[in-house]
Amino acid sequence: MERILLKVVMIMTLTVIINVNTVAMSADFGLERINMITNEASGNQGNSWGGHQCRIVRTEDGVFAVYMFGGENDAPKVWRLAWLDGDNWKVIADDSGGNSPVHLLASPDGVINVIGWPETGTVMWSGKPKNGAITLKKQTIGGLPKNSVIYYAAGISENGDICVTNSGGNESQGQFRWSFYEKDTDKWTYHYTRLDYRYCYSYVFPLPDGKLSIVSNRDEPWSRLGYEAPDGGFGYVFNAIRHWHTNDIYNEELTEYGYLVEEPSDEQLSVQCYMGYHNAYLDTDGRMHIIYRRYGPSTESKNSMQHAIFSEEGNMLYNELLPDGAEGYCDIFQDDRGQFFLLSSTGLLFPAGDNGISYGEPLELDFQGHQVEYSGFWLATPRSGTPRDSIIDGAFSTNGGTSVIYFRLTLYNFVQTSTTDSTEESVPKACSFALNTPNPFNISTTLSYMVSKDTEVILEVYDILGRKVRHLADGKHTKGTYSAIWNGKDYTGRDVTSGLYFARLTAEGYHDTIKLVLIK
């Protein structure tokens, strides 16, 4: 029996509200709302650098965002905490924030935490809002240096533990200084890790039971790495991204769990190498996803947006190009069902399956002409204390960093339905799956698929962690019906363990995935 071809149904109705800054939408799947938080942000100095900000959260008391205001260049600025009141934003608190981007974290009990770096040192303002009002208690966090520009990051665990880090150091020694707040004991501890090089623009993921992961971008002068700086190029090179992890912050050092690097070639010693615009996401299976832009000899000096996945043990599982159209700033995240989505600053939202790599056809979002600039998107995700949900609140800076735009995505009605619906236009596909039989299987299963025209077809099997297990088909196919047998072995000929696997069929940009259940 043939499996019915799946596609994404995206229905959107636009309703204009009488407010020049607000457009509300009702959507089965996609952009529900977009409006302006402020047009008075501080611009690109101290407000939009970094790419590591946590500046929007959602709690039972509403949606909150924090931005910086005033101050030219590196001058001290004021942060403002805003609350979404219907379709408008109301400033409910403010204070001195220094010249580095502040962070916003939500505790499980609904407490809002603003973390900033005024001249006096690292400060956290905390309070529980009620009906749009909040009283903040101010405390100084020790263990971190003062006036370290933009190399700060913060994150919160699902049980309310908070980690605040500072990276950087001088040009002969890199370092992480990090302060860890344990919710159960209501105490801070202070930690120091020496690094071989200087790193910046970090993402920090504190986890329950004293676990911690950090992803950061190397930032060094060319000569420090033994390279010749390109003529007219920037004096510093960002050509490596690393992932560190510890299972016990109190008794175990941070250990490298992943490394991505773009090295100049012998023939191109002066070529600009770059690994930036990066973002990081820790998924429900403990895998670390790193989205980054690569530029250098390995990409033939072309910008290349890529997606790397590292296992919980630090093994690289996947490192491939993002789908066509995913450019600029990109974020990957999960909804409350564990389904992945990839959001691109080009305005495209890609469903990415339950493994993060099975990309479907994208939905084009209408950001009303606003361009996503500088640090990309700020999303309310678990790293900022917002639980995974089918509603995603986000924001981004635009207009030279002087305006901040809010948007909301609804994913709860993301559905896949049959193409036999007579009310919709049928879209021809290059190929389609049939169900594998038997399923579940013990010894082997047969995967059948149809090819509608002459094209290149790839059929591969992946495990639940996204690792490629077996190549079943790859090459030119003429129109017709085909089958491939998987005998439960990997590419080395060894038997794989019982469990859930995924068969992925690809042809001319079309992807389809089915689940395979192996029982021994």
What are the main properties of this structure?
single chain, 6-stranded antiparallel beta sheet, 520 residues, 4-stranded antiparallel beta sheet, disordered N terminus, mainly beta, globular
Would you give an account of this structure?
The structure is a single chain. It contains no helices and 41 strands. It has 520 residues and is mainly beta. Strand 3 and strand 4 form a beta hairpin.
**How many strands appear in the DSSP assignment?**
41
Low-confidence stretches: 1-27, 416-428
Percent range of helical residues: under 10%
Secondary-structure-based class equals: mainly beta
β content, as a range?
A: over 45%
- Biggest sheet statistics: 6 strands, antiparallel
* Rg of Cα set: 24 Å
Straight-line N-to-C gap = 25 Å
Spatial strand sequence of the major β-sheet: 2-3-4-33-32-31
The whole-number mean of residue pLDDT values reads: 82
Shape assignment: globular
Task: Enumerate how many helices there are, as a single number.
Answer: 0
Task: Map the helices and strands.
Blueprint: E1 6-8, E2 12-16, E3 22-27, E4 30-38, E5 56-59, E6 62-69, E7 77-85, E8 88-98, E9 103-106, E10 112-116, E11 123-127, E12 137-140, E13 152-156, E14 162-168, E15 174-182, E16 187-195, E17 199-207, E18 211-218, E19 220-221, E20 236-237, E21 240-246, E22 255-261, E23 274-282, E24 288-295, E25 304-310, E26 316-321, E27 330-334, E28 340-344, E29 348-351, E30 363-364, E31 373-379, E32 391-398, E33 403-410, E34 416-418, E35 431-433, E36 445-451, E37 455-463, E38 468-477, E39 480-486, E40 499-507, E41 510-518
Antiparallel strand pairs: 1-34, 2-3, 3-4, 4-33, 5-6, 6-7, 7-8, 9-10, 10-11, 11-12, 13-14, 14-15, 15-16, 17-18, 18-21, 19-20, 21-22, 23-24, 24-25, 25-26, 27-28, 28-29, 29-30, 31-32, 32-33, 35-36, 36-39, 37-38, 37-40, 40-41
